[in-house]
Amino acid sequence: MAHEIQLQQYPREIKVKDGSTCRLRPLRKDDEKSFHQFFLAVPEAERMFIKHRVTDAEVIRAWCQNIDLGRNLPLLASMDGKIVGAATLHQQLGGWKRHIGRVSVLVLPKYRGRGLARALVSEIVSLARSLGLEKVEAEFIGDQEAAIKMFALLGFSNLVRLEDYVKDMQAISHDYILMGINLKVDEEYAGVG
Q1: What is each CA distance from 55 to 5, 29, 41, 60, 71, in whole angstroms?
Q2: Contact present, 137 and 88 (Cβ < 8 Å)
Q3: Band (189; pLDDT cuts 50, 70, 90)
Q4: pLDDT of res. 151
Q5: Rounded to whole angstroms, what are the CA distances from 95 to 1, 60, 99, 184?
Q6: How many Å apart are CA 155 and CA 51, to the nearest integer?
Q7: CA pair distance 107, 51, nearest whole angstrom
Q8: 10: which of 25, 35, 142, 172 fits an S-S bond (Cβ 3.0–4.6 Å)?
Q9: SS in 3 state form for the chain?
Q10: How many CB atoms within 10 Å of residue 96?
């Protein structure tokens, strides 16, 4: 599998803006308790924007016990001995979106402002490119302005905005925003051929 070759580079250390070191590695089965604690540490107001019931230990158990890195490749960031961030590359293995990956990212508030989310997204985009994906997309709720801005700085552009299209866990409507980046290099402009 192509992803297994790419994952040989992990675990590895990266430096973030403040000079501290962060360890990156894929999710493992034995991460169940610490991964659940990570989600419990996310402020409740932010958990409303997460698509899954991450406070439910059974949801996290299912993710950790049924890891399929070909479909969902969660990359964990740890500092101070705990998981402080996670980014996942979601892939369709067949069908009309098989060439498109989707990235999701989350960093605990205490660890924000250090460039960790940006580093995680860049890492996922690099993995997507090396796995042969042509595009990566990211979904947002309209209120996630800081995240939208960060993704724009990484080269993602707005693909669509639908007003009052999605509902958070409290059934409050929000705008839906889809951003994307094209990974396929135009060979004519890359000097190939």
Answers
A1: 32, 18, 10, 8, 22
A2: no
A3: very low
A4: 96
A5: 19, 27, 9, 19
A6: 24
A7: 16
A8: 25
A9: CHHHHHHHHCCEEEECCCCCEEEEEECCHHHHHHHHHHHHCCCHHHHCCCCCCCCCHHHHHHHHHCCCCCCEEEEEEEECCEEEEEEEEEECCCCCCCCEEEEEEEECHHHCCCCHHHHHHHHHHHHHHHCCCCEEEEEEECCCHHHHHHHHHCCCEEEEEEEEEEECCCCCEEEEEEEEEECCCCCCCCCCC
A10: 7
Question: In this predicted structure, what is the pLDDT of residue 36?
Answer: 94
Task: Kindly state the tokens that stand for 179.
Answer: 């951003």
CA separation for the pair 109, 85 (Å, rounded)? 10
- Tracing tokens 């501290």 back to the chain, one arrives at 20
pTM: 0.88
Name 39's Cβ contacts closer than 8 Å, sequence gap at least 6.
47, 50, 54, 55, 60
Q: Which residues of 8-18 are buried (b: 16+ CB within 10 A; e: fewer)?
A: eeeeeebebee
Dist CA 42 CA 192 (whole Å): 46
